[in-house]
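Posting for a labmate who doesn't have an account.
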Amino acid sequence: MPFATQSLPESSPTSGFGEFSAFAIYKLPSEEGVSYGVGSLLVAPTGSHNLGQGKWQTGLSAMAFFSQNHTIQFGSLFQWQASFAGKEDRDDVSLLTPQLFFIWQAGKALRYVGRSSRTGY
């Protein structure tokens, strides 16, 4: 359950819980060092203080992960979600979230670089 703080111009920051999101990925048969998967996504409107969309949402997830060696791994996770129920006074949701990640393992340490972008329509 995420905890969020929102700051709007000319108002005090608001803090509270965001929406609960869960997804499951089914790993498809693939080659060694390469993994692909697809699955479903569910979002429950648990946000407090208007910190969420206020809508039940469901959608699809797709993942690709490449680990050709033990030092460098990279991949992506794409999630699309759309609302199907919830508060009538809230806008409907249709959202695509692509996430790219790069993992570099230096010795026994782990370095992670990730990038996420949210696109709604």
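Reply:
Got it, the structure tokens are right above this. The radius of gyration is 17 Å.
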